[in-house]
Amino acid sequence: MSGIVLSASVRQNLLALQSTASLLATTQNDLATGNKVNSALDNPTEYFTAQSLNNRASDISNLLDGISNGVQVLQAANTGLTSLQQLVDNAKSIANQVLQTTTGYDTKSNVTSTALTNATSTNLLGAATTPVIGNAVNNDNGTPVAITGATLLSGTPSSTSNDLSTGLTTADTLVVNGTTFTFAATSSSSGTSIGIGDTVSHMLAAIDATSNASATITNGAITLTPSPAGLTLSGSALAKLGLSAQPPGGGLVNDTLTIQPTGGGTTTNLTFGFGNGQISTLNQLNAALAANNLQASISPAGAITLQTTNNAASSTIAAITGTSPFTGLTAGAPVADPNSQATRASLVSQYNNLLAQINTTAQDSSFNGINLLNGDTLNLVFNETGRSTLNIQGVIFNAGGIGLSQLTAGTDFLDSNSANKVLATLNTASDTLRSEASALGSNLSIVQIRQDFNKNLVNVLQTGASNLVLADPNQEAANSQALSTRQSIAVSALALANQSQASVLQLLR
């Protein structure tokens, strides 16, 4: 071959044809493979850069499977929480049924006082039915004072004046049938304010006008006559006026009553009377007893009965002390109603069955072997280096885990207090479930955001790699067409270059 000599024109056209053929082969290969860079020989920089981007995209794509599984683990736990909340709500319904069923006792614990004369619901104190006559008032030398007429209620006793030796001050009070009279330093009287220097007649007139009791003077002593409802007296001025603080016929004025905590209530401490903070009506008594799970009623004869409320129907009234007619009495124990207690025992059984379902629901809330409601931990990796992670610690949400425990028939659901106690634990369990659901929802949102981010990032990486190595079909097709045309021209040019040699050959023939 080295002995063959081609003319310059032929050689030039041959080289052009070879170059065109090479380019055409490359273009056809690009069209066939779809790549403009098929190996490091084509373009080392673009080839290795694209390979790095594709490798990272592949690594992140592999992580998407784990992230997807993590989403399902969270979804399974959230489904479990929803079911647990429904079961807790059903348990609340059972506890509420206890509050709505008939009281579980035919007779609740109770105690009844002796009858109080003239005691009514609006005046529990009882009252005298006969006049209250005070002692004769003496002056400073012990001589009885004729207190009619201009006799003064002076705090300065004298043997030569017609003053009372009472020693009344502005701090004294007199309470007659619930009306409080005060004493002023001045001598004038107005309404329920009586001047210390005023006359006895003015004081009696004030009592007549405002207290529904008749006030007169009998045998040199102040006399108070009961109204049809009776008479009650109290106040620091009684003794100074020679009157009895406890009206004849009995009553509760200044008596005290203490009852120890009953059914989880608070101690009752009260004093009967018309004073501030004292008890004189049935409504006031019931308001004071409510905190100790007790209530009161009064009979037509004036006997007051204390008994437990429905809240503490299973309890016995605790120890009673004080000076009231209840002192020394012991309340009887409640008497159970068999039918009602059977119903309550059935509700206990239903409640316990729901707790068993709570346990199994929590155990079944798993996905791919991970249960966030049974204490497992979900570990998620978001990037190829393993530095971007999320660790979600599970909880144990069986019945005990949310603060619920089995009930016992004959011990629980006996009265409203026991039902309310269970309702309180159920409300706490609901709050716990809602709090965990919120935390799971937040974590699920994070995982889904990272899942979408990774998907988009894989697309970005793969697009970047493709931009480096993929061929443009339109461009390569145009190149192929142009090269085909160029090849045809080169073939024709080569043929023309060979014609001169062909002419010489013709001459030789």
Question: How do the helices and strands line up, and which of them pair or pack?
Answer:
Blueprint: H1 8-33, H2 44-100, E1 105-107, E2 110-112, E3 132-133, E4 173-176, E5 179-184, E6 193-195, H3 200-210, E7 214-218, E8 221-225, E9 233-234, H4 237-240, E10 256-259, E11 268-271, H5 282-289, E12 294-298, E13 304-308, E14 320-322, E15 335-336, H6 338-364, E16 377-381, E17 389-393, H7 416-469, H8 473-508
Helix pairs in contact: 1-8, 2-6, 2-7
List the secondary-structure elements in sequence, H or E: HHEEEEEEHEEEHEEHEEEEHEEHH
Q: Spans with pLDDT under 50 lasting ≥5 residues? A: none
- How many E strands? 17
User: How do the strands of the widest beta sheet line up side by side?
Assistant: 6-5-4-9
Radius of gyration over C-alpha positions, nearest whole angstrom: 53 Å
Query: How many distinct domains?
Result: 4
CATH class of the largest domain: Mainly Alpha
Number of helices: 8
Could you characterize the architecture of this molecule?
Helix content is 44%, strand content 13%. The chain has 509 residues and is of the alpha+beta class. It folds into 4 domains: 8-60 and 473-508; 64-102 and 339-461, f41 fragment of flagellin, N-terminal domain (Up-down Bundle); 105-119 and 252-336, no CATH class; 132-240, no CATH class. The strands form 6 sheets. A 4-stranded mixed β-sheet has the order 6-5-4-9, covered by helices on one side. Helix 1 packs antiparallel against helix 8, helix 2 runs antiparallel to helix 6 and helix 2 (44-100) runs antiparallel to helix 7 (416-469). The longest helix is centred in the N-terminal third of the chain and has 57 residues, at 44-100. The model has no long low-confidence stretch (mean pLDDT 82).
